Every structure is written in C-alpha cells, then in structure tokens.
Amino acid sequence: MGCGSSKHAITDKTTSSKVIIHTNDVNPIKTAHASSYPLNDEPNAKPSNNLALNIVDYAKQFEGVRYKYGGTTKKGMDCSGLVYTSFKAYDIDLPRISRNMAKEGEPIPLEQVKVGDLLFFKTNGKHNAISHVGMVVTALPGNVEFIHASTSLGVIISSLAERYWYFSFVEARRIL
C-alpha cells in the first residue's frame, strides 16, 4: 500500500487504556494512541500559510497518476516524488527520499496538524525505518486526510483513520 510496501501488515499496539475509533473499515481501531483524536479544535484547521494551500493544490493535480518507483511526473509518481515535486514547484528543496524528508522541518503533535504538513509512515515490516510520506490535505476533528502515492492505487487521498495508515503512522512534521 505504501511506497516500497505491498503488504497489509498491522501491528497490535495494545496497552491498558484503549479507545475505539470508528472508521469505514470493517474493524474499528483499538489503540491507546487513538487519544490524539479528535484532531484540531477548529473545524477547518487552516494551513500554516497560503503557500501550503498552493503546494497542496499542486500535489492534487497528480491525483490518479499511476505509481512508479522513483517517478516525479504525470507518467508515474512515488510517494516521496509527489512531495518532492510539489514543494520543488515553489522553490522549496526537500530530500528525495521519505526517510530523509522525515529529518526536515519540525515535529508536531498529531492533534496540531494543518494542511500542508507531512505525515510519515513505516510500511515495510522488514525494516524499522520511515518508508512512506503523505501531505495533509484536510485536517478536521477526528479525520486527517492526506495525498500520497500508493504502490497499488497510484496517487490518491487517504484518511489517517483508515486502519492500515493509522497503525503505520510514525510522526507529523511541518516544513512551512
């Protein structure tokens, strides 16, 4: 599903306190770190600036483009290529690889994400490293949506409330 991963692996992260989040998925999410929801007290959490909106709009033009490892064009795109190309269009240089992108900007709590922030994931069960990145397009209470390139579906918008992405999520970072 993520860049460099085609497996749908979910790790059970159980602790003494559980919260259930209902999703469109067949099974609700049960986890302690679900307490981050609801996200943002403001119904339409504003991006950190207009530049963030422009970058997100630029990324959205690639929606529907097929996945291609190493791709950065409408002929094919991978997850970090989508983010790299979108920021580059506005003269912002980021590393080309998601695990290196995860060292840029400032880490932010999930409940503070805004449009344009980056979300990082571990989607490769064999390695304990960042392997996927997406860019926040919507930050509403209880739902963060992000644009990314999925190995199986190409460039799409997904929700962090989806079981796979929720359990693969590692951190959020603000570049702008």
From TrEMBL:
Keywords: Hydrolase, Protease, Thiol protease. SUPFAM superfamilies: Cysteine proteinases. It comes from Yeosuana aromativorans. This is NlpC/P60 domain-containing protein. PANTHER family: MUREIN DD-ENDOPEPTIDASE MEPH-RELATED. Belongs to the peptidase C40 family. The keyword Hydrolase applies. GO terms for biological process: proteolysis. GO terms for molecular function: cysteine-type peptidase activity. Residues 49-176 form the NlpC/P60 domain. The keyword Glycoprotein does not apply.
